[in-house]
Amino acid sequence: MIKKLSIAMLAIVVVLLCWCLSYLLPYMTQSAVATNPLVINDITQLNPITVTKVIAPQTEAELVQQLLNSSGAVSVGGGRYSQGGQTALADSLHIDMRSYNNIVNFSPDKKLITVQAGITWRAIQNHIDPYDLSVKIMQSYADFTVGGSLSVNAHGRYIGEGPLINSVQAIRLLLADGNVITATPENNSELFYAAIGGYGAMGIILEASLQLTDNSRVQRQVTNMAAQDYHDFFQAQIRDNSQVVFHNAVLYPPHYNQIAAVSWLTTDSPVTVASRLHSPDARYWWQPALTDFVADYDFAKRLRQHWLDPVLYRQPAVHWRNYEASYDVRELEPANRTKQTYGLREYFVPVNNFDAFATQLAAVLQQHKVNVLNVSVRHALADKGSLLAWAPEETFAFVIYYRQGTDEHARQHTDRWSQQLIEAVLAHGGTYYLPYQPSATPAQFQQAYPRAPEFFQLKQQYDPQNRFSSQFWTKYQPPFMADSI
Fold first, then answer.
1. Does the global pTM surpass 0.70?
2. Which residues of the chain have pLDDT under 70?
3. Beta pairing class for 204-214 and 49-50
4. CATH of the structural domain 217-442, one choice from 1.20.1250.20, 3.40.462.10, 2.60.120.580, 3.40.47.10
5. What are phi and psi of 377, to 5 degrees?
6. Which residues pair with 468 in a beta bridge?
7. Which of 42, 123, 350, 431 might form a disulfide with 448, Cβ 3.0–4.6 angstroms?
């Protein structure tokens, strides 16, 4: 009997190992895939766009010359992490900003840095970490270019900060006529508030002056609760707590009724991870394999909620702020996006409408059987300046990470549930985020962004021929602009 049990256990172990290997092998043996340099795509691989020419300028003079010596549409791209054609337009001159990536000026005493727009946040972190300084506001991953983050007015997990625009002192902007202007909240303010969060429509952001802050040690604290208790918990424990640096709440699928509130608070305790930044040479194989596993099975989602995350969160964690801000998107990248891909959606709702929207969000996602891996709840203070502000008042953000098929039926399915969630968030006085697939109807866009007419009037003033455009803007710009080129 013992011998039979041992053989059975061995067989189970072999089956489990083979199963695990089937997930891990594609990530351990990935090879480079040849691409057409004139086809611009984004991280989802859902939007291949063929352009006429691609240039990668390294100097301002070269940029200005290329713009003035060309005619027709111009599209601008950086890391290409937007997911709905925001960085390219068919038959356009495409400007790849990633080689325009120098540090222009750095003042440690003033905690201020000026950088060219093609630089990545990780490159900034490499430069400022020896001075015990940290980026004040950025998104969760450090691979993005500064210009791209500014163009979408990104945000992260920072408490008490809000959108990225709140940490920008000035930008330099190349306009359609070849002039370069400096825009701040006080000077050329209309262009400052239109170009940041303007998705490349106003001009090319050349440089940005960014406020920095101190690099500190932060300690993780996790509190589990029912989703209906989160609003009050946040107001009482997190919102005005000056020790909290990072915070987000994990709203677990597939039931969406439980939350893990994850906070990182300043501490004097010794770090549990010696590295001050994530290694740029790290190989990611088990992380994306685990993501695929969670996407494949509902029981894996429950396994993550009830076993994997609790085990992870029980471990003591004290990190440097820069370490916690230097994650690499490669940890999420699947081995292949041919038949299935991963995307993001984000919905913003006034803080007092958290419960009502969370209930409706769960109902829509369950009704349409959306394969959601994670819903991350963030908080942002109001952005009163941006013409395309996604946080016109203090807001909670619901960031949905999901998997979908790449065929036309899957795309239509994604559009349906996305439009339904937009209707829900609009009904609760909120809005949705623009960097993702443009599922919203033009009417939904206009309702979510009521200052869009001001935005387009300003664009017509500074770019009357509509040279700066993209596949995204062709859907939402007014008809009188579509025929300008």
1. yes
2. 1-34, 480-485
3. unpaired
4. 3.40.462.10
5. -95, 125
6. 74
7. 431
Residue for token pair 């005005």: 240
Close Cβ partners of 374 (under 8 Å, ≥ 6 residues apart): 250, 253, 399, 400, 401
The order of strands in the sheet holding 217-226 is 318-320, 217-226, 258-266, 244-251, 371-380, 395-405, 340-350, 431-432
Q: Where are the domains of the chain?
A: 217-442
User: Quick one: pLDDT at residue 478?
Assistant: 87
Q: What is the pLDDT of residues 158-199, one digit of tens each?
A: 998 999 999 999 999 999 999 999 999 999 999 999 999 999
- In a 10 Å sphere around its CB, with 0-12 CB exposed, 13-18 middle and 19+ buried, how is residue 203 labelled? buried
123 token code pair: 């490159």
The beta-carbon contacts of 30-38 under 8 Å, at least 24 apart in sequence, are: 30/335
Give the pLDDT of residue 9: 43
- Beta carbons within 8 Å of 323's beta carbon, 6+ residues apart: 273, 275, 276, 277, 278
The pair of structure tokens assigned to 169 is: 């002192």
Strands 93-96 and 53-55, sheet pairing: parallel
Which amino acid does the sequence have at 300? A
User: What's the CA gap between 137 and 121, in Å, rounded?
Assistant: 10
Q: At what angle do helices 286-296 and 2-28 cross, to 10 degrees?
A: 110
Distance of CA 451 to the CA centre of its chain: 23
Place of tokens 């065929």: 407
